[in-house]
Here is the input.
Amino acid sequence: MKQTLKFISLLLLIALMASGCSTKAKEDDLFKFKGTYVGDNSAIGNIVNQLQGAEHLKGFELKSEEKPHGIILNYDGSEPEQSHKITAVYNATFLFTLVQNVDWITFNFGNQEYKITKENLQNWYEEDFRKLPNEEELKTFIKKHLDDEEKLNQLFR
Here is the structure.
């Protein structure tokens, strides 16, 4: 009887741990913010704090008063320049996918600034990335395009 009780307790513990892990994964899914607007400070904050380089993010500004709407992201600039470009493309792709009315994003990395518009990024990809259905497919899509350093540099010319 004691062994059966121990076995059942162990199964319950495993089930609780498994359900806790799956809940955490759903909480971290950025696609729950799909359809967000530039004026939603809380949602934008949640998104940018889960994106690449979040540990270097110093703050952000939302430009929602007039069209075209934009976001300014300020980083500490401590990473190398090529990392800045990768972070800018990666984060812009997520933001343009998730935030319905954002038209441009400016990335400030200390003394380096990059501005990416939705139209320019769409043309650079030559595909509509905003229709990808989930975070994993979007990450795979981005990685495929970031593997080509020459192509990456073309976006910033």
